[in-house]
């Protein structure tokens, strides 16, 4: 019978910090969304300039472009991230009998996908169009699903590692992998010419907002369970 591991108790300061981060990320996300919808000219020009430059590099650097395609289509693909989430959820139930945490993880990722797809349909921003494309993508551009999904999955998994008291080399390695993955997937989308830079930034901001809100839910539940231990019935 799997048993629960000892988790790090929620820090009171973390509960106070969550609303501040959520407010800041919510404001930044809403501002960027508004500027994209209004097609604010300075931002659109910046997007176009970056896209033109990076596309020229992608056409000339074939080996780098092929590497980016492998990374974005297989390693950092949203479905790869979702499968990883599902496997972690299974491990949480099997190893720690943490059904609530597993459900919290899967539901958060599912809600993030729903938000992302709803915004894509609502904003309906066209992707960059090239006479000599190096890659292709479907659906609307804003926000980047790759960037948002990677941010949500990596952020939630880092939070779980923190919760279960992981420190030292394993923690630092996990942080490094998460940072490289989140930054790398965004850069590959721009490099391959399938997203504007603001699509990627929007995905990062919205993904971070989802993570902060989900962490807030988790902290509140754990605080409640510690205050009322008799209510903490294993699911």
What are the defining features of this structure?
235 residues, mainly alpha, 0% strand, disordered N terminus
End-to-end separation in angstroms reads 14 Å
Element-level helix/strand string:
HHHHHHHH
Radius of gyration: 19 Å
Number of helices: 8
Structure summary, number of beta strands: 0
Return the average pLDDT rounded to an integer.
Answer: 91
Query: Which percent bin holds the helix content?
Result: over 70%
Largest sheet: none
Shape, principal axes of CA atoms: globular
Task: Bin the strand percentage.
Answer: under 5%
User: Low-confidence runs (pLDDT<50, min 5 residues)?
Assistant: 1-5, 230-235
Structural features, described:
This protein has 235 residues and is mostly helical. Helix 4 runs antiparallel to helix 5 and helix 6 runs parallel beside helix 8. The chain is globular. The relative contact order is 0.17. The N terminus and C terminus are likely disordered.
SSE topology sketch:
Blueprint: H1 12-37, H2 41-60, H3 62-75, H4 78-96, H5 99-123, H6 145-163, H7 168-191, H8 197-227
